[in-house]
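Input record (one chain):
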Amino acid sequence: MKTRERPLLDYMEEVDERTEVRRGAPLPFGTAEVQGGINFAFFSRDATRVRLELFKRPADAIPIKVIDLDPAHYRTGDIWHVWVSGIGPGQLYAYRVDGPYCPREGHRFNVHKLLLDPFATAITQLPAWDFGAASCPAVSPRSPGISSTSWTWISSLPTPSK
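The corresponding structure, as predicted from the sequence alone:
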C-alpha cells in the first residue's frame, strides 16, 4: 500500500511541537540531512550572536521557530552549527547575525536583517536587492534546506569545451 504524500504546510505545523535542537557538526557548510533532521553550518569569524529562524511559508514575517545559538555550545572555531530534528529538505530558513558594525573594516553586522545562507543552493524568491527591504521579513527571501548529498556543485559546472 502506497502512503499518501503530505502537503509541506501540513507537515510544517508539527515542526514546533516535535523539534529537538542539538549541537550539530561544523561540516559540511550549508545544510545536510542527518539522522532525522537537518544540520546547519556556516562560517563567521566576527559574529557575536547568531539566530536561526525557521519559516512555514516564504511570505511569513514571523518564524515558526527561533533558535539562538550560544557561541559556547554552537560554535567550533569560526563555524556556527546546529542540528534540528523533525525537519527535512525544503524547510525555509534564514539567519540573523550580530557583531561589530564598522564599515571601514568590512563589518556590517545588523541583527535586524535576515540573511541567506551563503551555501544555499536555492532561494524562495529573487530579491529586489534593496537594502532597506532586508529588514522587512515578509519580503526577504529564505533558503529552503537542501540535503548536501542531493546537490553537488560539480554537477552544475559547465562541460569543458574542446
